Amino acid sequence: MPTFLHTADWQMGRAFSRFEAEDGAALVEARFEVIEKIARLANERQCDAVLVAGDVFDAQTVSDRTIRRVFNATRSFKGPWVMLPGNHDAALAESVWTRAKRLGAVPDNIHLALEPGVINLEPQGLAILCAPLTQRITYSDLTETFNTCETLEGLVRVGLAHGSVQGLLPDEIDSTNPILPNRAGTARLDYLALGDWHGTKQIDERTWYSGTPEPERFRNNGAGFALIVNLPRPGESPQVTPLETARYQWHQWREILTVESDLDQLLDRLQALPEPSVVDLRLEGSITLAGEEKLINALSVAEARFRSVQCDRSGLQLEPTDDDIAALKADGYVGEVIEHLRTLQQNVDTETARDALAILAALLKDRKREVSE
Questions:
Q1: What is the pTM for the complete model shown?
Q2: Which of 97, 100, 192, 250 is deepest in the core (most CB within 10 A)?
Q3: How confident is the model at residue 353 (pLDDT cuts 50, 70, 90)?
């Protein structure tokens, strides 16, 4: 009864340049930590092997240190690993894989599937049919060779590939590196382990994408899992169990604020998020000066609590209420300036006028506080 762990799309060496340096470094480190977690899970679940369905590395040009750290992170699971090149780390004549071998970084228990063919793991009862990408882009189905691959009697047949199952992925994705939707059936596979789609997704009873084990983008497609696959015996249906592996949750919200309760609901949702969160907000609509102050304070608290908070408020207009104006005691010329900025927000330079209005309101509040003190 072979049991293995199916994972893919580690994208090691990926940079997170859109984030602050400290946050980007933490997101990079989480990807090394998730490999260590995968190794621990493989031990805990008594797996016979770990299969990595492509894109172990994000690029051919990753540093030697990254290469060494990736293989070091696997060391707690002593069973066999099979790693398949994907489109980001294709098995070129000179590649990240050939460099890893020259460095002596690849442990003896890790099999690099750099050529099409079968890797027999006889003690584990597994025959791994491999379709590595030997170039970044291909327009032919490399898994077609599985149909004619012969395997030793008594071993379960497991396909390992990286590409796009045609016609079945969300958003009508039919891209390069195509894979036939019923390949598991045509090739008599007990299981087909796929990479390239970054979310966990079942294609059919025997065909799964594991997704990336640590999310690296805001698309909500079920990333952050590894799959434990149990194969009772050749020909029987696999038992697939997703296990959560992610450290960070990524949330991207696009909100339109129109009334005060919209802001309150947004801040309640923000408060309810777990601390290991990466948050991207884009706010539009209008907000009062009191609401703006509440929002700024809440974002300040969130920035200290979460891994990263980014908020685009360029589409959010400041709409001071009569109570806002009265609280500022903005009489005479200052009151006229405020009214002028309110008009400019609606008709001319929205972002500049909004920022100017926010600065003026802050100055007036500071002045009022100084006077009271």
A1: 0.87
A2: 192
A3: confident
